[in-house]
Amino acid sequence: LRFIDPLWRIKKFLNVGSEALLSESIKIIDDFTYSVIRRRKAELDEAKGDDNGAKMKHDILTRFIELGEDPESNTTEKGLRDVVLNFVIAGRDTTATTLSWALYMIMTHPHVAEKLYLELKSLEKERAIEENVALVECDTEDSVSFNQRVSQFAQLLTYDALGKLYYLHAVVTETLRLYPAVPQVSCSLYSSSTLGLTVSKIYLHI
């Protein structure tokens, strides 16, 4: 609301009104993001010190944390906080939009739905054998048994297992190609810059 409130600097200085609410909201977000970072660092330390060779999760946050351990890196705690916050904010609506379009495309292309179903069914059977798990008998007309089977399938999924779902990956990437969640990004320069050519202090569409 700062663009319609000429007194926001005074409110910020006095920490009152909307600026006080903003500060409180930022603190809640910071507490959450820093807790995610601390938890992942603890998991990494535990995995490194595990003589049994516990598997380490190599997700994006882990890679940024490992980058921060490099003496030549300038990655800070605040930098990691910004990375996590970017995941949370950017990954909400974009994920929802992409899933909506993916489901629409699957439902309007029965042959794709069939191939995707067979791939998921094959992975479920393979993982059940690996984990020595008896799959719950499922009836699509019975919501209880259906939900139990879905929950069981979710528990069988791992990072490695997801990597075997090549057709699912193709479905998602094709959905993103046809219906990108963010078709353009608006950026702005703090000041005019020269990188081979002069770019004025304006908003840019990427």
TrEMBL record:
GO terms for MF: heme binding; iron ion binding; monooxygenase activity; oxidoreductase activity, acting on paired donors, with incorporation or reduction of molecular oxygen
Pfam families given in the database record: p450
Keywords: Iron, Metal-binding, Oxidoreductase
Taxonomic superkingdom: Eukaryota
Essential cofactor(s): heme
UniProt xrefs under PANTHER family: CYTOCHROME P450
Family of this protein: Belongs to the cytochrome P450 family.
Protein name: Unspecific monooxygenase
Lineage of source species: Eukaryota, Viridiplantae, Streptophyta, Embryophyta, Tracheophyta
